[in-house]
Amino acid sequence: MNSTLNPKRTISELKDLRSFTADENGAQRVAFTPKWMETRAWLKKKLSELPVETHVDAAGNLWSTLRGQSQRALLLGGHMDSVPNGGWLDGCLDELAALETLRRIAAQYNGRPPVTVRLVDWADEEGARFGKSLFGSSACSGNLNMDEARVLKDKDGVPLPDALKKVGIEFDRVKESGQELKNAAAYLELHIEQGPVLLDLDLPLGAVLGTFGVERHAITFHGQAAHSGSTPMHRRKDAFLAAAKMSPEIYRIAERSTGGVCTIGSCTTKPGIVTSVVADCTITLDQRHLDAAALAKMLREAKEASQHFAKEGNVEVSWERLWQIEPVLFHPDLVEMCSDAISETCGKMHRLPSGPLHDAAEVARAGVPTVMMFVQSLHGISHNKIEDTKEEHLEMAVVAFDKLAEKAMEWVRGET
Amino acid sequence: MNSTLNPKRTISELKDLRSFTADENGAQRVAFTPKWMETRAWLKKKLSELPVETHVDAAGNLWSTLRGQSQRALLLGGHMDSVPNGGWLDGCLDELAALETLRRIAAQYNGRPPVTVRLVDWADEEGARFGKSLFGSSACSGNLNMDEARVLKDKDGVPLPDALKKVGIEFDRVKESGQELKNAAAYLELHIEQGPVLLDLDLPLGAVLGTFGVERHAITFHGQAAHSGSTPMHRRKDAFLAAAKMSPEIYRIAERSTGGVCTIGSCTTKPGIVTSVVADCTITLDQRHLDAAALAKMLREAKEASQHFAKEGNVEVSWERLWQIEPVLFHPDLVEMCSDAISETCGKMHRLPSGPLHDAAEVARAGVPTVMMFVQSLHGISHNKIEDTKEEHLEMAVVAFDKLAEKAMEWVRGET
Hints:
Two copies of one chain form a homodimer. Chain A is elongated and about 85 Å long. Chain A folds into two domains: 7-211 and 328-415, 3-Layer(aba) Sandwich (Aminopeptidase), CATH 3.40.630.10; 213-325, Alpha-Beta Plaits (2-Layer Sandwich), CATH 3.30.70. The first copy, chain A, is of the alpha/beta class. Helix content of chain A is 38%, strand content 23%.
């Protein structure tokens, strides 16, 4: 065994993976599909060359364990599944960097490192088929809502429990996956940033402070349909006018919040015809912040603004919560180690929150000290075939992630 | 024959008509349907009691002629067709007030008035089935676009020419209807206002100055989809933000125009999901004004605003014209007569433009001196089963319309 880390091998493996899992529209490794099973088989074959024990847990997550002198385990994770027409790095960079790090540790410590090191490939991070992301990790963390998950269907009407059965997973037992975390002492995950922050700062790598809390709502303004030709402007109850005023307002709310983001992603109008004032207008609002109090303030300000605009326009407004999750802060010691590993690798460092959710958030919510490392995304874009990262940055990412793993192993040993 | 006008009979006839053409959802006299044919037969029976010649022209319009000492003809018009689930007055009040006036004139002049008087029931004013309003009157005026009309289909896929054939109308000959206007010297039409202007002024009747010109456009802002969690606010190309800013702006544009109206009736967003910044946003804009220069200015200001907001938000904007029509001004002498007839009837008067289009606009565009009279609408609402007008206002409307007809007859005789 060669005890030297080989980041170029990771890039080569990412390209191999792309060669049989992507088509002209991008990556097609959607969870629980034959292509995903093929990806898993490819990964297992690579793991079989290492002195590890590999199995799939009750939720479909794959675990590969390198036993150490201590049972206390350092977890290295990611996900091999992609959205349809996805990028070549989202998820599998994490996994293949973890694999390379596992190889280096296994070689350096002759198959018996000071603490146990485990690689995990989470099942269905993307939620592309059933609209529920973080499936495997939320089953493992215990946060999966079984009642909601049981009735999820894909676009062909196939229920999630039936799709799981086809790949050997029994829906009612998925939370038994939680026992995998029994000896977990730390969790590390590398990921592409999927945003433009590092790109704008011209930095290859960043230490992630945590994942944003999210408030997701549908806001409906209720006005009155009226003839576009015969209704004077001052007599209108224009639901679109009130909804439209929310758009510049959420930019002001986000700016005041220092670090939060707000998005109106969808707008629908009824009756929605060219000759009528809009009677009902529904917009969706997605608000995110790393600080729970700041997130609550953003939500409160949006509600107040909606009520103000409704009153101003003589219309009514109602809110419906679609989803929410609290912010998840990563472990300060691990964030520090991550920052050090990055500085040692490329001399420059930045700390940033994660806008998107990741499996790491579920692991952290389960009480396992966690941190993520981000590598720059070109175009700041993911979930798209144009998703890309410079090869020199990918190599730095593998090096820095490996350094972080070494520091974390030391830390876990010290904590034991 | 009783030579006294009987406005109560008009109300009674409107109620009779409602009894067999409305259901619990409102009036169902959609053009070219069996219920509309039944309505026509009912009207023809009433006309057959008068000394008139009645026929249907090449476009399906019904004409009933009371020959006078002069061939020069005063036309009294309206439409018996309704939208689905329509009101009990829209269109048929015009027709039945014209009928009552025709009765009075026939009786008073012993069947031979000084000028010819003709009642016309226009075919398919509403355009409810094929989405093309003013069918019969635009065929008669010569303004019907044959290429566009030929390919119109109803929601069951039936082409307009086939539907016309079923009621005995040959599509390619509809413009022969134009010969009906040969001796037309003036055209009068009574209509419910369909808006709240007279209601707000607490006036029963108004003289109509003309019909608004209309500019109807689809405006699309082109931005970029981006993850709602990972994209900083200042990096966004948010198509909805630019589109939303147009809504308060069109209120300012309408206010500056003095008398115009602007409506954004529909908004669609793509990809239109809660987790993405809007890439493309299309709104429809309907602008109306009685003054052509003011309408052109409103359109220019909207275009400039859209370009400003696009630039401000780093997005692109494109415009597509959906439809336009120039303003139609009614004849000043007839507007004056209409005002006098109203003042003589109820002591109060108001002049106002018409926001909605009417058959009268097509007749005016064909060069026939034209005027309309409006009667107050309760709730300012039409195209709805709750459409209504106080009975005392309906009676006043018939009286005032009859006075207007007498004045117009005198005018036509004088002009001959």
